[in-house]
Each structure stands twice: as C-alpha cells, then as structure tokens.
Write a structure and sequence with these properties.
This protein is α/β, with parallel strands linked by helices. Helices cover 35% and strands 11% of the residues. The protein has a 4-stranded parallel sheet with strand order 3-2-5-6. The protein starts with 6 loop residues before the first helix and ends in a 10-residue tail after the last helix.
C-alpha cells in the first residue's frame, strides 16, 4: 500500500504502513468519505505535519488531540488554522502565553503556524482525522497506534528533542519518551477550560529555546 508521506518519514515508519491496523485506518477513512461523511482535514493535508517537518529536522514535538472539526479550520497541523479563519480559543491562549513569555512577541491577526513546522516543530495530533462537528470521533479507529509509533521513533532515534505535552491526553504519551535524553515540558491544556490551571505562566516557548541553545541547536522564531 502506497502512503503519500514525506520520504524520510516513509523510511522511518515503513513497517507501520504494512501493519493490519494501519490498513484498517486507511480503509475506514476511505469508507467514511465514500459514504458522504465529511472528514477534516482534506486527504492532501492528513500528513501535512510530516511533509513540513522531515524526520531529520525534528527538534520539537508539539502534541494536540485531534483536528479541528469546524469547516475550513483543520489543515494538518495541531492548533493551527489557515489564514482568514478566526483563531480558536486554545490558540488565542497560546498567543497570550507567547506574549508574556517571548520578549517582543506580537499577537498576529491569523492562526497560521506553518512557519513553526518549517523550523523543526512536528505539530502532531494524536488522531489525524475527525468527522465534521464531532470532536474526537476518529480517536478510536487506530490513529493513536500510529502516532504513538511516531513519538517512540523520535524518542528512540533522535536526541535533545523537546516534547511539549499540554493536557491529559498529551501527557498520557509521556511513557513513550526517554526523559534521559529529551526535554519533556508538561502543563495544563491551553483550552479556556484549563488554561488558568497551569498553562498560563508555564513559559514553554522560552524554556524550549533555552534547551535548544544549550545543545547547540538553533532556537525557534515563534513570531508568526
């Protein structure tokens, strides 16, 4: 089965693509679309995070849960929306934290975070598709087995990567990461329901750049 994914990831994950569970995920996504069910993101954007951030360039893994389920929002990068789409509440809170954490950060008038991905931020949702209007509707179809394998591969085969885990869903992946050779940053989720329980003031962006600099890696330009 041919999977359209960036070449370095195709090599790293080739065994996953041949496993029965992955074939079942692909069949489920195809089946839903054939039944006229609207799924996000578009087929061309399902593996967008991998396309923009090849395996050898990964410096940070930022974990989201599943794609935005509103029309025109999801485009394959967690927390990001296309230009012209209103920034969702979680992203607005991410910008607020950036404003207090990174000197000179100016909150932009859009939520398009592609520039982060191009600098080595793997912007990974644990589920890569969702049904329109139904949050986490594809959370149990097998995507998490795949994205767990992605997290493990990065942990095993790379070093000095920053894993940013916001909220319980992301933090449940901590056991997949080798904390002796990577930095794990945990806090509450930036959602309005939880941002005041430890997300605000957690300073993940400056902590990330400090760690990268300590290991002679270029810091991220967070301004978008």
């Amino acid at each position: 089965m041919e999977v359209q994914i960036e070449q370095s990831w195709k090599q790293v994950l080739k065994e996953e693509f041949e496993k029965p569970y992955f074939k079942q995920v692909v069949e489920r996504v195809k089946h839903d679309r054939q039944q006229g069910i609207t799924l996000f993101p578009s087929g061309a954007d399902i593996f967008r995070a991998f396309e923009l951030c090849p395996f050898d360039q990964v410096k940070i893994v930022l974990l989201g849960q599943d794609p935005y389920h509103g029309f025109g929002q999801a485009h394959g990068l967690c927390f990001s929306v296309l230009k012209g789409v209103k920034s969702p509440p979680s992203l607005q809170n991410i910008y607020k934290e950036l404003q207090t954490d990174i000197p000179g950060f100016v909150i932009p008038d859009h939520g398009f975070l592609e520039s982060w991905a191009k600098q080595g931020v793997l912007m990974l949702n644990t589920s890569l598709t969702v049904q329109a209007g139904l949050a986490n509707s594809h959370g149990k179809i097998g995507w998490e087995t795949f994205t767990n394998a992605v997290i493990q591969k990065v942990s095993e085969e790379k070093e000095h990567v920053v894993f940013i885990l916001w909220g319980r869903n992301a933090q449940s992946k901590k056991s997949l990461i080798d904390g002796t050779k990577h930095l794990i940053l945990e806090s509450a989720h930036p959602s309005p329901l939880s941002a005041y329980n430890g997300f605000f003031g957690s300073r993940p962006f400056s902590k990330t750049n400090t760690y990268l600099a300590e290991h002679h890696l270029a810091p991220i330009e967070w301004q978008v």
